[in-house]
Q: What sequence folds into this?
């Protein structure tokens, strides 16, 4: 079963990056306020980026890489892999 790294756009314009094995279940946790502390304070709006990996270790490493990016660099990453551009 694959693992996913995802980026959420929060209602305040910030980004949240995480990883999950069951992406649908994890997104429901975020929506219900039972996800990460960050998404309890910065309400998630929608998923804007997803990458799939074959192992947990690959997903964790990619999550770390993305979390080190600046807000602008994350926007560039999102725009490079998405038809809808976020400003």
A:
């Amino acid at each position: 079963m694959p693992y996913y790294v995802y980026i959420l756009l929060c209602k305040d314009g910030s980004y949240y990056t995480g990883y999950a094995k069951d992406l649908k279940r994890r997104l429901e946790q975020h929506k219900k306020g039972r996800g990460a502390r960050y998404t309890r304070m910065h309400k998630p709006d929608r998923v804007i980026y997803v990458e799939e990996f074959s192992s947990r270790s690959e997903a964790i490493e990619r999550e770390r890489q993305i979390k080190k990016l600046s807000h602008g660099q994350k926007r560039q990453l999102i725009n490079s892999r998405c038809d809808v551009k976020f400003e």
Notes: The first strand starts at residue 3 and ends at 10.
